[in-house]
């Protein structure tokens, strides 16, 4: 690399650092890239790897008990000295105890997901010395959360894996980013390249959250079958679960189409027929539908049964071509953003 090329690269890197400085300052990281909180995947090994690579790892608490979460936090602290966070589901019956565990172990950031957190919970987090992050699927909710004391927002598009809303990141970004400047806003959903992240930074985002790329990393404890399913998949293979009847609502989940997803459709139809024939009460049928996926994610992630388990993945799965270390994934993302800035400078110089 000659002096001129090096100078352009340095200028592009400085420009990127300036663009995501609000996110880096908020997270305390080198790069404003968060790891998405994925049940069974976002545990000590992946979380510490993301943080050690300059990003921000996030433990997925999910249905953990306070004792189990404490064990995971202690194990994570032993693997990294850099900042990381914990994602808590607001509907968890022991939410207050989970918050207290995080605070007792000096977790710097708590992500409140899976519903709208109460002002009391947000105050509990902040009064305990942690930063509070929330999810905003719409502008109005984002503003409401800020009034309640949320210090940063994540806007996640329907391209993401797992439980998703109905609106794409492309639309959410246009709806929300121009109108919220009081707190850092991180974008998520379908992101697999650094130049795509750059485009949202230039719209006003403070950083980005990625899950699918990291789920297929070397440090991820996911079964090889799970990672290889990602590697073979195309974007269109990551489909959202379908609801057959409005009387039996289904929370949409994006994952790779397999035998389990086809069986879920049949299961819904069976429950619907039984209800219509008077063989089962509505509440019982709803419960049977909701319980279909119980244990299905663990079956895929840990046991490697990618046909009968739930292979949750975002549409960025089509960009997973090989299993790489987290540090390499992070480096590639940053290089792609820097190269995009370099090309632009060359184009207009």
Annotation keywords:
8-stranded parallel beta sheet; 15 helices; globular; 349 residues; 2 domains; 3-stranded antiparallel beta sheet; alpha/beta; TIM Barrel; single chain
What structural category do the secondary elements indicate? alpha/beta
What fraction of residues sit in β-strands?
5-15%
User: For this structure, what is the CATH homologous superfamily of the largest domain?
Assistant: Aldolase class I
End-to-end distance, in Å?
19 Å
Strand arrangement, largest sheet? 1-9-8-6-5-4-3-2
CATH level-two architecture of the largest domain = Alpha-Beta Barrel
Largest sheet: 8 strands, parallel
- The topology string of helices and strands comes to HHEHEHEHEHEHEEHEHEHHEEHHHH
According to CATH, what is the topology of the largest domain? TIM Barrel
CATH class type of the largest domain: Alpha Beta
Number of strands: 11
- Total number of helices: 15
Radius of gyration based on Cα positions? 21 Å
Overall tally of domains: 2
Shape: globular
Kindly report the average pLDDT value: 95
**Unreliable segments of 5+ consecutive residues:** none
Give helix % range.
Answer: 40-55%
Organism: Aristophania vespae
Pfam families: NMO
Protein name: 2-nitropropane dioxygenase
Keywords: Dioxygenase, Flavoprotein, FMN, Oxidoreductase
